[in-house]
Specification:
Residues 7-321 form the D-isomer specific 2-hydroxyacid dehydrogenase catalytic domain. Helix content is 35%, strand content 14%. By secondary structure, the chain is of the alpha/beta class. It folds into 2 domains: 6-102 and 295-312, NAD(P)-binding Rossmann-like Domain (Rossmann fold, 3-Layer(aba) Sandwich); 104-285, Rossmann fold (3-Layer(aba) Sandwich), CATH 3.40.50. The strands form 2 sheets. It has a 7-stranded parallel β-sheet, sandwiched between helices. The chain has a 5-stranded parallel β-sheet with strand order 2-1-3-4-5. Helix 1 runs parallel beside helix 12 (294-312) and helix 5 packs across helix 7 (159-170). The longest helix has 19 residues, at 294-312. The protein is elongated. The chain binds (2R)-2,3-dihydroxypropanoic acid. The site of (2R)-2,3-dihydroxypropanoic acid (DGY) has 7 residues, from loops. Residues 56, 78-80, 103, 290-291 line the site of (2R)-2,3-dihydroxypropanoic acid (DGY).
C-alpha cells in the first residue's frame, strides 16, 4: 500500500477540499473555521509535515520553515502570497502554489460593488434611513457621482484588474491602466490604454487598485498621489492594505480628495470600530471579502488541495508560483 505523505492544514476547509486531501495524504489540521492558528500550534503542526496548506492569515517565514525539516510543498488558498517568505522557501527548494483564476470574477464584482456604493453613497443612505433621518425629497438630497461614461483607471491590470476593466465597458467607460509596463493585449482586447501612474491618477474618475503587494508597491499611494486625483474621484482598493499609506488616505478623504473611497483591505486586519476610517462619511468598508462567494471559496479550497496533492505526487500543476 502506498504511504500517504503527512500534511498540515492551518484551518478546517470546506468538506470537498478536506476529502481530496484525505484521499491522498495523512492530514492533520487546526480544527477551527473562524480563528487563525496560534503561532506555537503552527510551529508544532508543521514539524512532521511534507506539505502545508495555509491561508493569508498565517505568517510563513524562516522560523516556520526551520520548524518543518521535511517540508517540500506549500499551498496557499489565495492568489496573494505576501505573507509567505519566498526566499526562505526557495533556500530549501520548497514549491509554492496559489489559487489564481478561480477568484477573478468574484473579486472584480466586489470592486464594482464598492465603487458604485461609494460613488452613490449607498451605505450613507442606508444609515440615514436607519437613524430615522430621511426627510422629504429635495433636489440635492444625497447626491453622489456618476460612474457611467466616466474614466476608469485600474492600477495593476493582472487577471482581476482586467476583469474590473471588462465590466467598465458595460458602463460605457473610457479605460486606462497602469502596470509595470504596457501590455499590448489590453489595448487590443479591452481598448484599455496604458498610463504612467501619475497620469492615470490625474485622468481617472474612478481608480481601482488590484496590484499585488511587493517591495515595489508597498506604500505606493499616499498624500502626493491623492493630491493628483480629481476632486470628484472615487478610490477603491481590493488588493492589499499596505499598498496605501492609510493615515494619509484618511487625511485625504477628510480633505475631500478623493471624494470617496471603497476599501476591502487595510493596513492591519481586522480593523476595529474605533478605526479613523469609520469616522468618515465618505467611505464604504468591507472586511476583506473580495473572493467571498460560496462557490468561489469552495473552488479556492479545492484548488489549494489539488495543488498540494499534485506537487507531493510529482504531478504538474499550472499554479506553481515562479
Ligand atoms: C487572495 O486570494 O489573495 C485574497 O486576498 C483572499 O481571497
Amino acid at each position: 500500500m502506498k504511504i500517504k505523505p503527512p500534511i498540515f492544514v492551518t484551518r478546517r476547509l470546506p468538506d470537498p477540499a478536506m476529502a481530496i486531501l484525505a484521499e491522498h495524504c495523512t492530514v492533520s489540521w487546526w480544527d477551527q473555521v473562524e480563528m487563525p492558528i496560534p503561532r506555537d500550534e503552527l510551529l508544532r503542526g508543521v514539524a512532521a509535515a511534507e506539505g502545508l496548506l495555509c491561508l493569508i492569515t498565517d505568517r510563513i517565514d524562516a522560523e516556520v520553515i526551520a520548524a518543518a525539516p521535511r517540508l517540500c510543498a506549500v499551498s496557499i488558498m489565495a492568489v496573494g502570497y505576501d505573507n509567505i517568505d519566498r526566499a526562505a522557501l526557495a533556500a530549501r527548494g520548497i514549491t509554492l502554489t496559489n489559487t489564481p483564476d478561480v477568484l477573478t470574477e468574484t473579486t472584480a464584482d466586489l470592486a464594482w460593488a464598492l465603487l458604485l456604493a461609494a460613488a452613490r453613497r449607498v451605505v450613507e443612505g442606508h444609515k440615514l434611513i436607519e437613524r430615522g433621518e430621511w426627510g422629504p425629497w429635495h433636489p440635492l438630497q444625497m447626491v453622489g457621482q456618476d460612474i457611467y461614461g466616466r474614466v476608469l483607471g485600474v492600477v495593476g491590470a493582472g487577471r482581476i484588474g482586467q476583469a474590473v476593466l471588462r465590466r467598465g465597458r458595460g458602463f460605457g467607460m473610457r479605460l486606462i491602466y497602469h502596470n509595470r509596463r504596457p501590455n499590448p493585449i489590453l489595448a487590443a482586447e479591452l481598448g484599455a490604454e496604458y498610463r504612467p501612474l501619475n497620469d492615470l491618477l490625474a485622468e481617472s474618475d474612478a481608480v481601482v487598485v488590484t496590484a499585488p503587494l511587493t517591495d515595489e508597491t508597498r506604500g505606493m499611494f499616499g498624500s502626493a498621489q491623492f493630491a493628483l486625483m480629481k476632486p470628484a474621484s472615487i478610490f477603491v482598493n481590493v488588493a492589499r492594505g499596505p499598498l496605501v499609506r492609510e493615515d494619509e488616505l484618511v487625511a485625504a478623504l477628510r480633505a475631500g480628495r478623493p471624494w470617496a473611497a471603497g476599501l476591502d483591505v487595510f493596513d492591519r486586519e481586522p480593523i476595529g470600530p474605533d478605526h479613523p476610517l469609520l469616522a468618515l462619511p465618505n467611505v464604504v468598508l468591507t472586511p476583506h471579502i473580495g473572493s467571498a462567494s460560496v462557490a468561489t471559496r469552495v473552488r479556492m479550497a479545492t484548488l489549494a488541495a489539488e495543488n498540494l496533492v499534485a506537487v507531493l505526487s510529482g504531478r504538474a500543476t499550472p499554479h506553481i508560483v515562479k
